[in-house]
From TrEMBL:
<feature type="domain" description="ABC transporter">
    <location>
        <begin position="6"/>
        <end position="236"/>
    </location>
</feature>
<comment type="function">
    <text>Part of the ABC transporter complex PotABCD involved in spermidine/putrescine import. Responsible for energy coupling to the transport system.</text>
</comment>
<protein>
    <recommendedName>
        <fullName>Spermidine/putrescine import ATP-binding protein PotA</fullName>
        <ecNumber>7.6.2.11</ecNumber>
    </recommendedName>
</protein>
<keyword id="KW-0067">ATP-binding</keyword>
<dbReference type="Pfam" id="PF00005">
    <property type="entry name" value="ABC_tran"/>
</dbReference>
<dbReference type="InterPro" id="IPR013611">
    <property type="entry name" value="Transp-assoc_OB_typ2"/>
</dbReference>
<keyword id="KW-1278">Translocase</keyword>
<dbReference type="GO" id="GO:0043190">
    <property type="term" value="C:ATP-binding cassette (ABC) transporter complex"/>
</dbReference>
<keyword id="KW-0813">Transport</keyword>
<dbReference type="Pfam" id="PF08402">
    <property type="entry name" value="TOBE_2"/>
</dbReference>
<keyword id="KW-0547">Nucleotide-binding</keyword>
<dbReference type="InterPro" id="IPR017871">
    <property type="entry name" value="ABC_transporter-like_CS"/>
</dbReference>
<dbReference type="GO" id="GO:0005524">
    <property type="term" value="F:ATP binding"/>
</dbReference>
<dbReference type="GO" id="GO:0015417">
    <property type="term" value="F:ABC-type polyamine transporter activity"/>
</dbReference>
<dbReference type="InterPro" id="IPR050093">
    <property type="entry name" value="ABC_SmlMolc_Importer"/>
</dbReference>
<comment type="similarity">
    <text>Belongs to the ABC transporter superfamily. Spermidine/putrescine importer (TC 3.A.1.11.1) family.</text>
</comment>
<dbReference type="InterPro" id="IPR027417">
    <property type="entry name" value="P-loop_NTPase"/>
</dbReference>
């Protein structure tokens, strides 16, 4: 039987006329590392504040260890929070900052000394006891904040983008340290981030949030390789979204027609029929480009396609090549004006801007994300238009050290922006 430590049931929350949370539900097991992943304004921080007791939901309940704590004050819940801005007392040294909550609880002095020493050992700050916050680096301040949070032995530790203020190298180091610390302590971590790489590297399960709802809950593998909607496919990593109409159906494959040509995909258990409109997600790393040269097919971008394999019926021109964070991205404009992106590790490629190529991938590398895609309903056009969606989204700031690729855009992601997230 699963040891459920936290139950979030039908939670709704509004600020004024803006509904920030829209009936979210989630059960979390003891010792899990759960990450709430989403764009700014999707409701991540509000969810954390309701769990901690800093906000009260309009509807629904929060149960901690089976007990309803929805109306309990924060100090009545064995839940602590680590914030991005550290929130250290500037007039107290490291030791006093960590011991502060224990003194409020009137814990005996010898117990305080022992627990503070244990916390300092866990965050690798032995010898820093007498330093003031102003004498610490950003990473050291964050370690103090974490030590102060764990010294109380909480049931759940909430972390609101705790690494957001750190530089790239230190952030990656702290990701490893945090995950190792969580495993050692066995404490349930609920972590907030907008960085998909951070979520994938650290989490047991990821909760992708969009507009106050949980779009998908699953393991990193499920969220990345088996996204349930095109929003998840776009937000977690980089995906090409193809919309088309089923033309033929075989025992193991389906042929989908689009303006740029026909593509073949693996058949699923979904109740599909000929002429159904479908949405397909293809990760950029699964796209292969084959140069067209006097009728000969020459594989340019390494992948799973063999030299003699018949490529799909998508033809286009290489429009742009970008290299960032070890990835070469090649953008191809198809004959209908839409774009598709292929990516590979390394920079070596003989493919040049202006080359004519054909696009190929193995049928098993696609994911059928949704037949009627809610994500596209914000436009006046039909839901599925037999076109390939050109907008590719990569949410990891690590890709270009804080900047996005020229082909990445967030403008078409609907989000609530009420300042409270």
């Amino acid at each position: 039987m699963k040891d459920i430590i936290l139950e979030i049931e039908h939670i709704e929350k509004s600020f004024g006329d803006t509904q920030v949370l829209k009936g979210i539900n989630l059960s979390i097991e003891k010792g899990e590392f759960i990450t709430l992943l989403g764009a700014s304004g999707c409701g991540k921080t509000t969810t954390l504040r309701i769990i901690s007791g800093l906000e009260t939901p309009d509807k629904g309940s929060i149960k901690l260890n089976g007990i309803d704590v929805t109306k309990d004050e924060p100090n009545k819940r064995n839940v602590n929070t680590v914030f991005q801005n550290y929130a250290l007392f500037p007039h107290m040294n490291v030791e006093t900052n960590i011991a502060y909550s224990l003194k409020l609880k009137k814990v005996e002095k010898n117990q305080i000394k022992q627990r503070v020493a244990e916390a300092l050992q866990l965050v690798q700050l032995i010898g820093f006891e007498k330093r003031m916050p102003s004498e610490l680096s950003g990473g050291q301040k964050q370690r103090v904040a974490i030590a102060r949070a764990i010294v109380n032995n909480p049931d759940i530790l909430l972390l609101d983008e705790p690494l957001g203020a750190l530089d790239l190298q230190l952030r990656r180091q702290m990701q490893i340290e945090l995950k190792n610390l969580q495993k050692e302590l066995g404490i349930t971590f609920i972590y907030i981030t907008h960085d998909q790489e951070e979520a994938i590297n650290m989490s047991d399960r990821i909760v992708v949030m969009k507009d106050g709802r949980f779009e998908q809950v699953g393991t990193p593998h499920e969220v990345y390789d088996l996204p349930k909607t095109s929003y998840v496919a776009r937000f977690v990593g980089t995906a090409n979204i193809i919309r088309g109409q089923i033309e033929t159906m075989e025992k193991e494959t389906i042929t989908v027609h689009m303006k740029s040509g026909n593509v073949q995909v693996k058949r699923t258990d979904s109740p599909l029929q000929i002429h159904d409109e479908v949405t397909i997600a293809i990760r950029s790393e699964n796209i292969n480009l084959i140069e067209e040269n006097d009728g000969e097919k020459i594989q340019i971008v390494e992948g799973k396609v063999s030299k003699d394999e018949e490529p799909l019926g998508l033809t286009g021109i290489v429009k742009e090549k970008n290299f960032a964070a070890g990835l070469l991205r090649i953008n191809v404009e198809l004959i209908d004006g839409k774009e598709i992106t292929a990516s590979r590790h390394g920079i070596d490629s003989t493919l040049e801007v202006g080359d004519r190529v054909r696009v190929s991938w193995k049928p098993e590398t696609y994911v059928l994300v949704d037949m009627v895609d809610k994500y596209t309903k914000n436009s006046n056009s039909s839901i599925l238009q037999n076109t390939l969606e050109p907008s590719l989204i990569s949410m990891s700031p690590d890709v270009t050290d804080g900047t996005k690729s020229t082909k990445c855009s967030l403008t078409d992601i609907p989000a609530i922006d009420d300042g409270k997230e």
